# Entry
Amino acid sequence: MTRSIGELDLSTSHPEDHEELQPRLDEPLFLVHHHPGYLRVQADAFLATAENGKVANAAQAAAEAAPGFRSWALNPKTGSVVVEYDPDALEADELLKHIVRKAGFRCVENSTRLQKSRQELVSTFLNGVQDVNHVVGQMTGERADLRELVPAALAVTSVVSFIVNDDRGRLPHWSSALYRSYRVFMHWHRTEVRTRERDARQKEESGNAQ
# Structure
């Protein structure tokens, strides 16, 4: 690409540009995160209101009409959208320009809002963690993500600390690392753990009844 994403030239005219589904908005579409095959964008026009529903639907229809489109996931509470696409069939800037034209946004801008509320900062952090988790999942073929890899790394640290017996305190004590590994794993998999415990109790009760 000859230009960076988030600084798109929307001046080039295309025949389909005259078939916009929405009136022009005095609002940009913010690009929050990108890597090939994956985009996260955000706009106030995607928030859950009756008026915004038309904009979100138009944007989704524009994305779905693009060659190489894979999925669209909207969070109406934050106005954030994750778009997955085939990078071999579609360039990110072309997909963004298509969405902007059809949904009526003013332009595409990189998300560089300096003044953010605490809620926005938390949302940005969580979005970043989700993005990293998504990449990790892709790299492992969806066999594992941060919920497994972080506890595993802590468990490995525990073993190394036990073997090395570090007196300088450069490594956490092996028991502390092992406990944190257990706590993190149990917290992130509490739903599965509770399901297993419930199934075990039901089997035990069923066996006692017989």
